[in-house]
Amino acid sequence: MKPEETIDFHLKVVWQNIANTYNQLASAFGITQALGYALINVQEDGTAVTQIANLLGVKSTSLSRMLNNMETLGLIYRKVDEKDKRSVKIYLTDFGKEKKKLAKKVVRNFNEYLNEHLDAKEKQQLIAALQKINELTLGYQPAT
């Protein structure tokens, strides 16, 4: 089977192109696609570090490096959760909130562009197919 005959090949190519596009756009604002995605997912009342790790799908060493970088850039600060002292929450600084707004605008604009070029049926079919692939992936058990 040739790589271009596999589903995962096309998913990877499309995601890489989307990520590269977002990185180019984000660099104009002094951040990366990954930082923008992290900012978008930090809630007003703080977000647990473990939650961010799950949302980003990164390992703890990569997340730690990213959070340290975000702190250095003045985008976030960390605080021990008052209800659960074992948990650390991330909060956006005013500067982080500004960058979050910019990141959300970039995502909104890109999705508006996609919506202009995909009709409702194409979009619905794509989302349904991606959801099914995700379910199949999560349930996949290789033959032993």
Structure overview:
With 144 residues, the protein is mainly α. It has one domain (3-139): Arc Repressor Mutant, subunit A (Orthogonal Bundle). Helices cover 65% and strands 8% of the residues. The protein is built from six helices and three strands; from the N terminus they run ααβααββαα. Strands 1-3-2 form a three-stranded antiparallel β-sheet. α2 crosses α5 (94-117). The longest helix has 24 residues, at 94-117.
Topology diagram in text:
Layout: H1 7-27, H2 33-40, E1 47-48, H3 49-56, H4 60-72, E2 76-80, E3 88-92, H5 94-117, H6 120-139
Antiparallel strand pairs: 1-3, 2-3
Helix pairs in contact: 2-5
Keywords:
144 residues; mainly alpha; Arc Repressor Mutant, subunit A; three-stranded antiparallel sheet; 6 helices; globular
Kindly, what is the distance between the CA atoms of the first and last residues, rounded to a whole number of angstroms? 21 Å
DSSP helical segment count = 6
Write down the secondary-structure element order.
HHEHHEEHH
From the helix content, strand content and strand pairing, which structural class follows?
Answer: mainly alpha
Sheet with the most strands: spatial strand order: 1-3-2
Strand content: 5-15%
The CATH superfamily label reads Winged helix-like DNA-binding domain superfamily/Winged helix DNA-binding domain
Overall strand count: 3
Average pLDDT taken over every residue: 92
What percent of the residues sit in helical stretches (DSSP H or I)? 55-70%
